[in-house]
Write a structure and sequence with these properties.
about 350 residues; alpha/beta; five-stranded parallel β-sheet; four-stranded parallel β-sheet; globular; binds ligand LNDFFVEH; binds zinc ion; metal-binding; hydrolase activity, acting on carbon-nitrogen (but not peptide) bonds, in cyclic amidines; A_deaminase_dom
């Protein structure tokens, strides 16, 4: 172990920044429900359903979660989806994901849930909604973390999936209280965004906010399509926006945030290395950048690590990291009072840290 007193100042500063990030109150805007299943949760679900091919040993699981490309990632992702077979599985996963978010001082999270994947595997829609809502309320009471839902269409599953997702999101008898937004996930290649316009129109008419993935694995035109056809209010990833200066200017001018997930982009090989990640270009263009974890255990990361990565790439100190955390509050779908409370908590924490 390195002696603290002789460690170079830069190492000490990095350690201090990590400690600052770990206890910083945060909001997470782009994190997937199934993609957040920790090795412990995967092991517990696999023990419930021993016919699954998902390994439970942590070392084998780390290998299993090494992806050759985005298509391979989705294949593995769906094998974990197959572990979630009962409303009790859904409740366990949701509650444990909230516990992990709380451990990282996440006060507010918009969790992307794909109800179609569960209902088509035979889970009753009413029981699914009850399970996530029960876990949401218990998590808020037990951990103090507020969860909200984004229901996303798994785009590759086509218009049948879109129809089912919008039905579940807008039927007054089913729609959960915690639902705030409507998304679109899965592969982008061969899945044009404009075809989903009627479904987003219905979700938006029902009061949901539009947050599709776009520009993760395809070019900037997909982001334009998400803005134009799906009326996106935030963009999931938006990585390829960096290739189009006009698009960057548009995102900056209209304060359309990007949900940036740096490690995810490396793990799925959408970007070659962290040093080549376009987060710097986004910030330089004045785009509202938020930092998120996407599918943290699958990508060997967590939100705290994503903040540390962003701090390094953007050369941020504690104040800069606090501003990044406040970007997520601003870009969130919290109400004005909730935003003010969380921003104030971040400011108070930062002032105390810097005064200590
Ligand atoms: O559930 C099914 O039966 C099914 C059938 C066909 C296709 C699909 C999907 O494509 C599911 C994709 C699933 O992936 C989630 N996800 C997680 N992380 C990401 C990401 O970084 N980029 C895009 N999608 C992601 C997404 O929520 C979808 O549910 C499913
Ligand atoms: Zn995602």
């Amino acid at each position: 172990m390195t002696d603290q007193s002789t460690a170079p100042a830069a190492d000490r500063a990095a350690r201090d920044l990590h400690a600052f990030i770990a206890a910083l109150p945060k909001a997470e805007l782009h994190v997937h429900h199934v993609g957040s299943a920790s090795p412990r949760i995967v092991a517990e679900l696999a023990a419930r359903h021993p016919d699954s091919k998902v390994p439970t040993d942590p070392e084998a699981l780390a290998d299993y979660f090494t992806f050759t490309d985005f298509a391979h990632f989705i294949e593995v992702y769906l094998s974990v989806v197959d572990l979630i077979r009962t409303p009790e599985d859904v409740r366990l996963l949701t509650y444990e994901v909230a516990r992990e978010l709380a451990r990282q001082q996440v006060r507010y999270a918009e969790l992307t849930v794909t109800p179609y994947s569960s209902t088509r595997r035979g889970i009753d829609a009413r029981a699914f909604m009850d399970a996530i809502e029960d876990a949401r309320k218990a998590a808020e009471a037990d951990f103090g973390t507020i969860l909200r839902w984004c229901f996303d269409i798994p785009g590759e599953a086509g218009l049948e999936a879109a129809e089912e997702t919008v039905r579940l999101a807008t039927d007054d008898r089913l729609r959960p209280e915690g639902l705030v937004s409507f998304g679109l996930g899965g592969p982008e290649i061969g899945v044009p965004r404009p075809q989903f316009k009627p479904y987003f129109d219905r979700a938006i008419a029902a009061g949901l906010r539009s947050v599709p993935h776009a520009g993760e694995t395809t070019g900037p035109q997909t982001v334009w399509d998400a803005l134009t056809h799906l009326r996106a209010e935030r963009i999931g990833h938006g990585t390829s926006s960096a290739q189009d200066p006009k698009l960057l200017a548009h995102l900056a001018e209209h304060r359309i945030p990007l949900e940036v997930c740096p490690t995810s982009n490396i793990a799925t090989r959408a970007v070659r290395t962290l040093d080549e990640h376009p987060i710097k270009e986004f910030a330089a263009a004045g785009v509202l950048v938020t930092v998120n974890s996407d599918d943290p255990p699958m990508f060997g990361t967590d939100l705290n690590n994503e903040y540390a990565v962003a701090a390094r790439l953007l050369d941020l100190d504690e104040r800069g990291v606090a501003e990044l955390a406040k970007n997520a509050v601003e870009a969130s779908f919290l109400d004005a009072a909730g935003k003010a409370r969380l921003a104030e908590e971040i400011d108070t924490y930062t002032a105390r840290w810097l005064a200590a």
